[in-house]
Amino acid sequence: xxxxxxxxxxxxxxxxxxxxxxxxxxxxxxxxxxxxxxxxxxxxxxxxxxxxxxxxxxxxxxxxxxxxxxxxxxxxxxxxxxxxxxxxxxxxxxxxxxxxxxxxxxxxxxxxxxxxxxxxxxxxxxxxxxxxxxxxxxxxxxxxxxxxxxxxxxxxxxxxxxxxxxxxxxxxxxxxxxxxxxxxxxxxxxxxxxxxxxxxxxxxxxxxxxxxxxxxxxxxxxxxxxxxxxxxxxxxxxxxxxxxxxxxxxxxxxxxxxxxxxxxxxxxxxxxxxxxxxxxxxxxxxxxxxxxxxxxxxxxxxxxxxxxxxxxxxxxxxxxxxxxxxxxxxxxxxxxxxxxxxxxxxxxxxxxxxxxxxxxxxxxxxxxxxxxxxxxxxxxxxxxxxxxxxxxxxxxxxxxxxxxxxxxxxxxxxxxxxxxxxxxxxxxxxxxxxxxxxxxxxxxxxxxxxxxxxxxxxxxxxxxxxxxxxxxxxxxxxxxxxxxxxxxxxxxxxxxxxxxxxxxxxxxxxxxxxxxxxxxxxxxxxxxxxxxxxxxxxxxxxxxxxxxxxxxxxxxxxxxxxxxxxxxxxxxxxxxxxxxxxxxxxxxxx
Length: 590
Hints:
Layout: H1 2-20, H2 26-58, H3 72-91, H4 101-112, H5 118-133, H6 141-158, H7 163-182, H8 185-196, H9 202-223, H10 242-267, H11 274-291, H12 300-307, H13 313-332, H14 340-361, H15 369-385, H16 388-399, H17 405-422, H18 428-435, H19 444-450, E1 462-465, E2 468-469, H20 471-478, E3 484-489, E4 492-498, H21 499-509, E5 523-524, E6 533-539, H22 544-554, E7 558-566, E8 569-576, H23 578-589
Parallel strand pairs: 1-3, 6-7
Antiparallel strand pairs: 2-5, 3-4, 4-6, 7-8
């Protein structure tokens, strides 16, 4: 009975994996999306607790963000000491193990099919907590995205899923992390597809939506249904405000371009020793901590005060500029800080400051300061990340007010265009990747090939055989009517040939006109007339993009699809030709 159930389980698991090889496995992907969201939601709860619990006990007033209530000496020592500890930790790690954040997630997607390790999750968890509790200018959303993506990727690896499914799981983890952090499931979905994956697919939407929703449900159980900020009812008083909204968009667009430029400029030192760079980043943070302590940590208490109109013009302007400088300079030097939170902080304070100017110019028409603060948040997020749709969805979900949509669309798209077209800046994450000598390939062809595994198109009707066969063995081999014969050598398959070529050879030798020939005693499959193909291996989990890369690097004419089933044992599942990949892509495109 035990063997029976084990056989049934193995069959179901194999069928589940095989279904995921293609692009139409919506039921299977939906289940994976739900699991990803639940796991990510739980991880984010632990991450938030690891940040909030020590801060609530360490900072005055039992608040997790009241760094400004610390003594000047403590404010000066804390970020420097934290930077030195972080620098020492990163110094002891290999270069690849130091990489954290959303940029690392994008790198793993582009170069490693979304495979992420538990070690990277541990490094991100520790560094993400350390940057916030030691008062660096940081956010928790970037580390949260890394953690969500990693644990979702690890789930796919543990289940030995095809690589195209692991890529989808990474996107699910990203969406779930944003959803759990801000309580904004829609913007989590758009963020994952617009910022991280940089593609929209119908098959991808379903699991990613389910991941975002399930993660939000998990965090609702602990933190309640309220969004990250306390936003009052907001509305645009008059259409006459539109010119001023455009003016604010120009200012935000310039600020976003400056932010990206400073990060890129400081990133040119990435080859210097990490301990020195992190120490300098900590030193840079000290004067900001002493003079403008609101820049320390996440700063959502300041954002809430800004939205509710409790801060003055000069304070907002100074704090916004200080946050821009402190965050860009330290992140550019390699401080493993999150960037989404600081982006919202900068947008809120600068937007509110511009709103106060507008109230002086036209007091009768001007809307509330909170209205302009929220518009600034959306504009800065859209411009820095070059993700206008994700920013608009975040703005709508945070305010829960449809009246914000029209001015939000206007300011976000204008600010994004100013940053990208006037100043020629790409997304912050793409800029950091480029400074590291990396790129992000997102052409339609590459995206299409990444969505499908070799298991979806391989020819499964194959038979492995030895090179030398007797005529009787050859006839027995052909009884199962395989399409391809995989010829074994000393170190694995050496060639493949169509089974029909062997059948034709046998038939030709049995013709009456060849009766005078000596009877065949042995057939050498490498010498008979046949359309043989040189072969190279490709793993069963590989995507079509990986298969094409294998064709290019090995100059093979066919790939045999294999999987490790036990130590030192490889099982071959099928054969893939380059023409199969081209035909599949052409069929899907038509």
